[in-house]
Design a protein that fits this description.
With about 525 residues, this protein is α+β, with helices and mostly antiparallel strands. The protein is about 20% helix and about 20% strand. The protein is globular, with a radius of gyration of 23 Å.
Length: about 525
């Protein structure tokens, strides 16, 4: 058991959570991250308000797509320690119980193999890391285990109350805002590197390899498992680390690229791709943003106001929207100043997230340069929206109007509807989706590849469908749950203070336990010690 080494690819929120869970179970963890460093920055907070935030965006990239990708697709990534958690808006609503079953109303392909009850204990652990601020519960959105509770301003409470009986569900969106008083030298209130990985590294509970661009995972047909993770180091040299298991958490596109590049005689089209599903069923949130002008001023919200989705019974399967209401320009000092003294405004920025039905013909594939150095390889991404999905997002403007009208407030909305930019929500998901049936999913209910059960997929590529809610919290919860089960599969005793995923004798690693004995030696692919 002491020889077990699990390689975690990526130090973003999901990879960090998986590493923490494995370390808590006594598993040796090596994190391989392509980032050479964390972005610089400062966060200053007083009484729950963010007074100042600055970050270095030199490690934030939007130009890593191959030229043959769909022309209007936007893909943001960050090859940095902590990944996109250095730049995110920190919204962390939980998925609702019906979010896990909504797609099954449409087709068996869209049935999640897990329920809300399966994930619920792991939400709490993730929320403890995040230090969540939330308001009163919102209809259709399960309550968070929040460290702090915020309150809607009085005029926004009037909007909420006017909608209480059959109107729009209004409240504060849960945010990972961190402690109320803070001076921190990092890019965001919660950065997974600073808040999780760095403490684990300092304590010696994990090893972090910086600038490690994972090219592929090496499959052993004899042993029936992945035995090495191969990467290119900062000096351009190819290295490998032997392991008992791998957790892929590099983000939807990069994790998919690694799986597709991991070819062998058993998997000529990529690891876990026996049914041709790796890279398919990509989905994200169709995103719209606009400014609404009210006929009377309202308090400028220091904490964004949230309008949750309509009831499931009143909407078509996998068609819903949520609205987040805040300032029109977050970096405008004059606007931000209003939030400190309860100032009012008649102009509000509104962000809409919609949903889409995942389709097998859209997704991520290897471009012509995939054989090159993985530091420079670029993916091809196909992503587009069907007309019902566009109409669904556009209709959310009327939801905003109705919510305010219930309180006697008129609002002027823009006439022009901009074209939606696929990927602009930065929520791409689903390319190694979870399903009980290998014909419909790459991974099982414990996030293990059906074809390679010592590989865990622990980022948003695991999502079967994408509800309209921000996905990071659910990805973190699923990652911790999967990592805990992996520790069971490796034979580690449960941590008494944490919930255990439990083991069953019929698990796919049954009979393989004696083979999971990675020594953790760094090697080049020829086997010489590096």
């Amino acid at each position: 058991m002491s020889n077990d080494v699990v390689v975690v690819v990526g130090s973003g929120p999901s990879g960090a959570g998986a590493a923490a869970q494995l370390a808590s179970r006594g598993v040796r963890v090596v994190i391989l991250d392509a980032g050479p460093r964390e972005p610089g920055g400062w966060v200053v907070k007083a009484g729950g308000n963010t007074l100042y935030r600055r970050f270095d965006n030199s490690l934030y990239s939007t130009d890593r797509l191959a030229d043959d990708s769909d022309q209007d697709v936007y893909w943001a990534s960050s090859l940095s320690l902590g990944g996109l958690s250095n730049y995110w808006t920190s919204a962390v609503p939980r998925f609702a119980p019906d979010d896990f079953t909504d797609g099954a109303r449409l087709d068996e392909r869209y049935r999640w193999p897990v329920s809300y009850d399966d994930v619920e204990p792991w939400y709490g652990l993730a929320e403890a890391d995040l230090v969540v601020t939330a308001g009163n519960p919102i209809a259709g959105v399960p309550d968070n285990e929040a460290r702090y509770r915020g309150k809607l301003p009085a005029d926004w409470r009037a909007v909420r109350d006017a909608n209480a009986n059959g109107g729009e569900p209004v409240g504060l969106i849960p945010l990972a805002k961190g402690k109320r008083w803070m001076v921190a030298r990092r890019a965001a209130e919660y950065s997974s590197y600073h808040c999780v990985v760095a403490p684990l590294e300092r304590d010696g509970r994990v090893e972090l390899v910086r600038g490690a661009h994972v090219s592929h995972l090496e499959w052993s047909a004899t042993e029936g498992r992945v035995v090495r993770a191969v990467y290119v180091d900062e000096g351009g040299q190819e290295q490998a680390i032997e392991c008992s298991a791998v957790v892929l958490a590099a983000g939807t596109v990069d994790s998919t690229m690694i799986a597709l590049r991991s070819r062998s005689e058993d998997f000529p089209d990529g690891l876990g791709n026996a049914h041709g599903l790796v890279g398919r069923y990509l989905h994200d949130h169709p995103r719209d943003w606009w400014v609404g002008v009210t006929d009377q001023p309202l308090t400028a919200p220091a904490h964004p106001v949230y309008v949750a989705r309509e009831p499931f019974e009143d909407s078509e399967p996998l068609l819903a929207t949520s609205l987040t209401i805040g300032l029109t320009a977050l970096r405008n000092p004059r606007q931000r100043l209003r939030t400190f003294y309860g100032g009012r405004t008649d102009r509000f920025g509104v962000q809409v997230f919609g949903t889409m039905v995942p389709r097998p013909e859209i997704g991520v594939s290897l471009s012509g340069d995939h054989e090159s150095d993985p530091r420079n390889a670029r993916p091809t991404v196909r992503l587009s929206y069907e007309q019902p999905e566009v109409t669904n997002v556009t209709a959310a403007r009327e939801r905003f109007r109705h919510a305010l009208a219930a309180a006697g407030i008129g609002v002027e909305l823009p006439d022009h509807v901009d074209d939606l930019s696929p990927g602009s929500s930065v929520h791409m998901s689903g390319t190694m989706r979870m399903h009980d049936d290998p014909q419909f999913g790459v991974i099982d209910r414990w996030s293990r590849m059906h074809d390679a059960p010592n590989v865990i997929v622990a980022d948003m590529s695991s999502f079967t469908t994408g509800p309209e809610k921000n996905p990071t919290l659910t990805s973190m919860a699923l990652a911790r749950r999967a990592a805990d089960r992996l520790a069971d599969d490796l034979g580690h005793p449960p941590a008494s203070s944490l919930p255990s995923a439990g083991s069953d004798a019929s698990g796919p690693l049954q009979g393989l336990r004696s083979k999971l004995t990675g020594a953790g030696r760094h090697q080049n692919p020829a086997g010489r010690s590096a």
